[in-house]
Input
Amino acid sequence: VCNDSSKVSRLDALKEALNGAKRSNGTTDDTGFVDYFFKEAKDTFESLPVTADDNKIVRELGIVTFSSSASTVMPLTSYDKNSNFDVEKATVENYINRISGNGATNPATGLAAANKMLENSSNSSKYIIFLTDGLPTTTGNSGNTYNNQSAINARKQAEENVKDGIQTFVIGVGVGDDTEKDSSSPLYSPV
Output
């Protein structure tokens, strides 16, 4: 979290990427991932011809957070043509708004928890959109410091996700702020 009140914290930047940017009047624009997810789902369901298999077509979304360990913030939830998208969107945004940051950044735990969540998915196409606020770190006597083993573990877990048929998209916010970044780290090479 940034001490300078004129700057946006990394966590706030992640929330804006998901929920859309806040305007000065307190409203948000419709540019966040959640807006896109529900607009795409609604458009998909509205464009499909009416068939007996309508209820088999779903979109799913779940939220996992991670620091030193991972936890499920929102379980994998299915949305179909009968979903009230405005209510569901507000529910997801509320989950996101309650996320708080603490501890280290151990990406392997988040990737593993997301993989486990997707084991129960009925969709043939599975994706993880992995948002991180920085480099893999561990908490020690000197605070959070870069940890190469954490980067190696994250890469191994990403490789496991690929073997399980899960595509992962990684978005880092604030990674460039860390001066000890090592560009030869396994974190920076494609899986």
Summary: Strands lie at 59-66, 70-79, 126-132, 137-140, 143-146, 166-172. Confidence is low (pLDDT under 50) at residues 1-6. Residues 148-163 form the longest helix (16 residues). The radius of gyration is 18 Å.
